């Protein structure tokens, strides 16, 4: 089966009115999803693959080879190789530090939702915490039947996230 046919069926299933997304955002999300579906091409892959082949992979292996040859970290390695370029080592370490900050947050989100899903299975109820009202974070305006046109009510998923 063609990938576009499968993706088209997937998008039609998402765009039906049975979506768990709060109704006030549904029209905007549907419009964006339709636009994205129409504009999907592989054009971004060409420059990505070129830059990966020309810059990314060679620089990655160069840094690995330099570190293995000198048996030192990035700062010491660049400082010994070309003392003038010692700042490159500091920059590599600083960029790794910045990436670690946001990557740890993403991993924490994934672990949180994974654990919440597991806890809902072991609690015996089987419902995910963001599918029903009555939780400690819900407001009195929470309604599991929040639909289009009912102003003042929010869905449990909207309040959870």
Structure overview:
The protein is mainly alpha-helical and 161 residues long. It is built from six helices and no strands. The mean pLDDT is 75. One of its GO terms (molecular function) is metal ion binding. It is a multi-pass membrane protein. One of its GO terms (biological process) is dopamine uptake involved in synaptic transmission.
The whole-number mean of residue pLDDT values reads: 75
Rg over CA atoms, rounded to whole Å, is 24 Å
Approximate helicity band: 55-70%
Distance between the termini: 36 Å
> How many distinct helices?
6
Q: Judging from the principal axes of the Cα atoms, what is the shape?
A: elongated
Instruction: Estimate the strand proportion.
Output: under 5%
Number of strands: 0
What key attributes describe this structure?
0% strand; 161 residues; 6 helices; 2 domains; mainly alpha
Tell me the layout of helices and strands.
Layout: H1 3-15, H2 23-39, H3 45-70, H4 74-81, H5 86-122, H6 156-160
Short description:
One of its GO terms (cellular component) is presynaptic membrane. By secondary structure, the chain is an all-alpha fold.
């Amino acid at each position: 089966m063609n990938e576009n046919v499968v993706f088209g069926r997937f998008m039609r299933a998402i765009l039906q009115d049975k979506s768990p997304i709060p109704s006030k955002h549904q029209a905007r999300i549907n419009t964006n999803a339709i636009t994205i579906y129409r504009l999907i091409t592989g054009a971004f892959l060409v420059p990505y693959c070129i830059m990966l082949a020309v810059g990314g992979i060679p620089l990655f292996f160069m840094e690995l080879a330099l570190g293995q040859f000198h048996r030192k970290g990035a700062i010491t390695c660049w400082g010994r190789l070309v003392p003038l370029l010692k700042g490159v080592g500091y920059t590599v370490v600083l960029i790794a530090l910045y990436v670690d900050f946001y990557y740890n947050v993403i991993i924490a989100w994934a672990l949180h939702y994974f654990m919440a899903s597991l806890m809902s299975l072991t609690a015996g109820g089987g419902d995910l915490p963001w599918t029903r009202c009555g939780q400690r974070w819900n407001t009195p305006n929470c309604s599991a039947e929040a639909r289009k046109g009912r102003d003042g009510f929010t869905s449990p998923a909207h309040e959870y996230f």
